[in-house]
Amino acid sequence: MPSPTGITRATLVKDLRLEWRSKDAINSMLFFSLLVVVVFSFSFDPNAEESRQIAGGLIWVAFLFAAVVALNQTWAREIRNQVLDAYRVSPAPANSLFLAKAIGNFIFVSVLEALMTPLFVLFYQLRPLGPAWQLLVVAALGTWALVVNGTFFAAMSLRTRSREIMLPLLLFPISIPALLAMVQATTNILTGEGARVWMALLLSYDLVFTTACLILFETVLNAE
Amino acid sequence: MNGYLLAAYAATWIIHIGYLATLVSRYARLKREIDDLKKK
Amino acid sequence: MKRAFPILGILTAILLSYSLYMALVVAPTEQTMGDVQRIFYYHVPSAWTAFILFTINFVASVVYLIRRKQGADIVALVSAEVGVVFCTIVLVTGPIWARPVWGIWWTWDMRLTSTLVLWLIYISYLVLRRFSASGETPLLAATLSIFGALCVPFVYFSIWFFRTQHPQPVIGGGGSIDPRMLHVLLINWLAFSCFALLICWSRYRLEKLQREVEQAQALESLTQSPGSPR
User: Domain extents for chain B?
Assistant: First the structure.
């Protein structure tokens, strides 16, 4: 039997290949990113002085929106093809499946963020006064925080009524400390203040919840 | 007595009594279902 | 055991009346805030009770995950529901207190904000319980409870650090408390704890009865199904 990391990698590659094959996905992602930024620009006037101060928050709300869109379809393919039942009876560790899904979501959301960021920088004339590389770290840590819990809660929501609203309903409250950290860190880097503590908070949040998800996913998968 | 003070205390008891009322109505409905079952 | 319930009921009624009297009449009037400060005697005990109930929910959830006993699941459900009730009271009395004292309804006060987040987490817990497929509800709910508990330290730290960066008014005041006020506070807390126990006990009995009825109904519909041998 292949190793757990082998299974993770295989599942991940399969998912990515399936997504990449449909060019529609890429085009819709591009358009989606543009739409989000434009809508935000109409809602929060980029020329107003205040908007530059809340840009950090705006960006993360947009990213959160993108994350929910991505997360809602995490298990769609598996449900359609009854793959989960096969997973339950196979000796493959549930963790591998979870990790593959989470990493896949992370890549998907990161692509959306990479498409949206230049547009935001353009519309809001953003110039980070602090070290820009830190923004990448915050983006990675923050995205992972949303995606790891989101993938887990998407699995929990599989058999609930109103599945699509269940996911954000579960995800948002738990994510509040992480969201606060992401937004504050981004804003601080843009305004040139220190973001170390917020980044440390994000890192520990990621470690704690990744561990929790890995330990408890098996239970959720087999809940009946 | 201060208006806000009264509002706060009243709100507390309204919420508690509201919750207890839902318990009572659920219990009444349950009683009816038990009677239905007993009849069969 | 059966007689304990009405005895607790009477005791609770007496305690609640006495503590109300203490809060409104006996407790000394606060210097700066005046009579409005008496909200404190309802606001704080409700918060403490809510946190205790949420802790019970966490413990019951862990017990359920390990032991899979239905009793633990019911305790988890009951403590979450009643906890949300008390938590709602904290979130309602807080702003009512803040308005006359600070002129604003809300502030990112440490206690109020963390209570809000906890309230949101537990509302999502109750929604999950309501909406999930009944076979898996106890397990999923227990898992969510653990996630909530893990989140708590992060909630407190993030709000605390946020406040050091963006100073905000503190509701309820810090610092030492007059011993006479402390006494009234503790009496009210005792009264509300007994009240919480009473409510939880009733809710537990209700839930247990409900599950038995549902089982009986399910059994009855199975034996009544057409085609089954008479």
Answer: 1-40
Interface of B with C in 1-40 (CB under 8 A): 1-2, 4-5, 7-9, 11-12, 15-16, 19-20, 23, 26-27, 30, 33-34, 37, 40
- Is the distance from CB of A52 to CB of A186 less than 8 angstroms? no
Using CB atoms and an 8 Å cut-off, which of residues 147-176 of chain C contact chain A?
Answer: 147-148, 150-151, 154-155, 157-159, 161-162, 165
Strand partners, C30: C34
Q: Using one digit for the tens of pLDDT, what is the confidence trace for C97-144?
A: 999 988 888 888 888 899 999 999 999 999 999 998 888 899 999 999
Q: Would C8 be classed as within a structural domain? A: no
Per-residue pLDDT tens digits for B1-40? 688 999 999 999 999 999 999 999 999 999 999 998 888 7
Contact partners, residue A133, CB within 8 Å, separation at least 6: none
Neighbouring chains to A with at least 3 Cβ pairs closer than 8 Å: C
**CB-based contact B23 C206, cutoff 8 Å:** yes
- Domain tally, chain A: 1
Please tell me the pTM assigned to this model.
Answer: 0.91
Q: What is the residue range of A118's domain? A: 4-221
Q: What is the span of the domain harbouring residue C116?
A: 14-27+37-224
Number of domains in chain C: 1
| Secondary structure class of C30 (helix, strand, coil) | strand
Q: Is A210 an 8 Å CB contact of chain C?
A: no
Torsion region of C170: left, alpha or beta (phi above 0 gives left; psi -120 to 50 gives alpha): beta
Q: What ipTM, to 2 d.p.?
A: 0.93
Mutation target vs A (from C84, C120, C136, C163; most A CBs, 10 A cutoff): C136
